[in-house]
Automatic annotation (TrEMBL):
Residues 510-707 form the Peptidase S9 prolyl oligopeptidase catalytic domain. Pfam families: DPPIV_N, PD40, Peptidase_S9. It comes from the Bacteria. One of its GO terms (biological process) is proteolysis. The lineage of its organism: Bacteria, Pseudomonadati, Bacteroidota, Cytophagia, Cytophagales. GO terms for molecular function: dipeptidyl-peptidase activity; serine-type endopeptidase activity. This is Acyl-peptide hydrolase. Residues 293-379 form the Dipeptidylpeptidase IV N-terminal domain. The keyword Signal does not apply.
Length: 719
């Protein structure tokens, strides 16, 4: 062999060993970093939840000293979620919920299949960090009294009251028994009354329970759904949101809209008056998506979320009389989580203004509507909390999962608070920065995506690095994967996702797949958020015509035209709504898509509309059944040829496990190659870290088998 060839071969083998080092980039490693969520604050203190390899613990910090402390000492991946963190007004206690609510059969998730079952219960833990958590009682959504010594929480639709000290004595008591299911509750400023919404089927009422004489007074009772009540600062009035009550046969459509109004009622008389109503059916999402859809500020202004100008914004309106709301942040962008300063003068918020596929923090002066940007750059900054003169927030980047950062309001310098360092197992240096891309669907709609390219230098699959051997053209040789988020009211971003472990892990897996040599495209298809109301409420979406499928096809064309991609080796993957689009692609276009991985997807909208729940959460009625089936993967099974890995927890409360059982049986009967990974007693968003490792491990092996990117020349892992 010519000496040059020997040299080339030597260089290639050296390079291949370097590539092999990338195998140190493991699924376990990319999922090993701590993930911070549930950030909240009071006074000079914040608390948040840290989930690290499934181990969930509560941390706290005080400012301005930024002193950190771990408050709980959980040490195992026990599959029991922690949620609803809330600090007592004096900062001495954190109340939180361990476990997840019961399903229709009255059972809480038990992903470890523990023979002693599982519960959802309220706990408190001292912020001194010196004591064990104290179990308060079965329930959720704890709310503190103004003096910080009492907690109200919900259990089975009724409200309970606990007195909190170093021990729970006397035992919690049911506050009262009322018809319906009580929710949206809060103490009055004087701590002597409980405001709540009573949900009663077609309608809901706003009530006030007087602790002194155990009496319930109802406010402005009508035939509508009154919800999200808030106290005026003096406790003499209540504001709430009113949407029309149900009509016979009316079905919930979480992607639809409904008109809504802002009302104010007088506590003493119970009389109410409308302050404003939306010009159209702009309500629904603006109430259930934000954490605080309605607020009454100390400056005596009502703040509420609405999409009526085409984007999710916060508006202010005076509570005194009918008047026109003022948009606090006019412009073509969306507002997400918010925090109001203690004096009510500033609203802090996360937005994608001027950076569509990221999130940064802003604040707006409620009086003047003057706004200023507080964070910028390549971060994914969300969930602002203001403690004194310090802004604390959740912060991620393209190569860092969500942690906690802070800045002083008098100094723009940002400081990372948690974690102090990333685990050595976390392959930060080997991550690839996703690129923002857009493409047009067949109907002209512009769709955003994030493109993950294998790290520079990683040789194209199975071939020596370009440049070492004379090649006339860079042959298209990489397999590519399209990822679809769930929801669908979601948006994947140019960095680690902030919306729970579910999406943080999805982003991590796309990093892993790129590292393995796949070109990966995360597709922000229509019906998602971030791009305005019209995009989110795109016509004929899902069960009404699957208009999103145009975006699937356009994304495939984008990849097929990419110089690094082998157009005949495209794969699909996604969860839930993303699983639906994965299955739809394989059913309709096995000619385009070589294989797919469907995590707990919906496969028959007509079945979901009839059997999962009335309308299937998408308002699928009798008249929509035919269209719903036609919009489903199950309508095109005769065309399905490509292999698919199906993954589902059999205690899924969001997408019935039956969807996967049915589809796999049907595909098997027509000899389509199917693999399944079933997680007994797991739910929709897998609660155990070990479940995620199993899911992604199975996915990795499946993709390597059907869309091989040889880890080294000539080897293809066995399935
Ligand atoms: C396709 S209908 C149900 C989809 C499901 N929505 C609610 O549970 C879903 O996509 N869930 C998660 C993702 O798992 C979400 O992001 O809401």
């Amino acid at each position: 062999m010519h000496p040059t060839c020997y040299l080339t071969l030597l260089l290639w083998l050296t390079f291949d060993s370097l590539v092999a080092q990338h195998q140190l980039f493991t699924i376990d490693g990319v999922l090993s970093a701590p993930y911070s969520s549930n950030l909240t604050g009071v006074g000079d203190r914040v608390v948040w939840l840290v989930t690290e390899r499934g181990v969930r613990n509560i941390w706290t910090a005080t400012f301005p000293d930024a002193k950190l402390r771990q408050l709980t000492q959980q040490r195992t991946d026990d599959g029991q979620d922690l949620n609803d963190l809330t600090l007592s007004p004096d900062g001495r206690w954190v109340a939180y919920v361990r476990g997840t609510g019961k399903n229709k059969e009255g059972v809480s998730p038990n992903p470890t299949s523990s023979p002693t079952s599982a519960e959802q219960a309220v706990y408190v833990v001292s912020t001194t960090g010196t004591a064990e958590p104290i179990r308060v009682g079965v329930g959720s959504h704890p709310v503190w009294s103004p003096e910080g010594k009492r907690l109200v929480y919900g259990n089975g639709g009724q409200l309970y009251l606990a007195t909190i000290s170093d021990k729970i004595h006397p035992a919690p008591t049911r506050l009262f028994t009322a018809r319906g299911s009580q929710a949206d509750y809060s103490f009055s400023p004087d701590g002597r009354r409980i405001l709540f919404a009573s949900y009663r089927g077609y309608h809901s009422l706003i009530g006030i329970y007087l602790l002194d004489n155990q009496q319930i007074n109802w406010l402005a009772a009508g035939v509508d759904r009154d919800q999200f009540p808030v106290w005026s600062p003096d406790g003499r009035q209540v504001a709430f949101e009113r949407v029309p009550g149900s009509r016979h046969g009316e079905l919930e459509n979480i992607q639809g809209g409904r008109p809504f109004a802002i009302w104010v009622a007088d506590v003493a008389t119970g009389q109410g008056r409308e302050i404003w109503h939306s010009p159209g059916d702009d309500g629904g999402f603006a109430q259930y998506y934000p954490t605080a859809p309605l607020r009454w500020t100390r400056q005596n202004q009502l703040l509420f979320f609405s999409e009526h100008d085409g984007w999710m914004h916060v508006y202010k309106v005076a509570p005194t009389r009918a008047n026109t709301p003022v948009d606090l942040m006019p412009g073509a962008f969306e507002v997400e989580e918010t925090c109001l300063s203690a004096d009510g003068r500033y609203l802090y918020y996360a937005s994608n203004e001027a950076d569509t596929d990221r999130r940064h923090l802003w604040r707006v002066n409620v009086e003047t509507a003057h706004r200023e940007q507080l964070t910028s750059g390549k971060g994914i900054d969300t969930d602002p909390v203001v403690v004194g003169q310090t802004l604390v927030y959740r912060d991620a980047a393209w190569n860092e999962p969500t942690g906690i950062a802070w800045r002083s309001m008098t100094n723009p310098k940002t400081t990372a608070l948690f974690p102090a360092k990333w685990p050595n197992t976390f392959p930060k240096a080997a991550l690839t920065e996703p690129q923002a891309i857009t493409f047009a669907a067949a109907d002209g709609l512009v769709v955003h995506g994030q493109l993950f390219l294998p790290p520079a230098g990683l040789p194209p699959a199975g071939l020596p690095p370009a440049g070492l051997l004379p090649t006339t053209t860079a042959p298209k040789q990489r397999p590519a994967l399209l990822f679809f988020h769930g929801g669908p009211m979601r948006q994947m971003l140019l960095g680690w996702h902030y919306r729970g472990i579910y999406y943080a892990n999805a982003y991590a897996m796309n990093q892993y797949l790129a590292q393995q040599g796949y070109v990966v495209l995360a597709v922000n298809y229509r019906a998602g958020i971030g791009y305005g109301r019209a995009f989110r409420r795109a016509d004929k979406q899902g069960p009404r015509g699957a208009s999103e499928y145009q975006d699937v096809l356009a994304a495939a064309t984008f990849l097929q035209n990419h110089p690094a991609v082998d157009p005949k080796r495209l794969g699909l993957w996604g969860g839930s709504y993303g699983g639906y689009l994965t299955a739809l692609g394989l059913a309709r276009n096995s000619d385009l898509f070589a294989c797919g991985v469907d995590l707990h997807g919906v496969h028959d909208w007509s079945w979901r509309g009839n059997m999962f729940s009335p309308g299937g959460d998408w308002g699928i009625g009798e008249a929509e059944t035919k269209e719903a089936l036609a919009s489903s993967p199950n309508a095109d099974l005769s065309r399905w040829r490509s292999p698919c890995l199906f993954i589902h927890g059999d205690d899924d409360r969001n997408v019935a496990f039956a969807e996967t059982v049915d589809l796999v049986q049907k595909l098997r009967s027509q000899h389509v190659p199917t693999d399944v990974l079933i997680l007994p007693d797991e739910v929709h968003g897998f609660l155990l870290h070990k479940s995620w490792l199993a899911v992604y491990g199975a996915m990795d092996r499946f993709l390597q088998y059907y869309l091989p990117v040889p880890r080294s020349l000539g080897t293809t892992p066995k399935k």
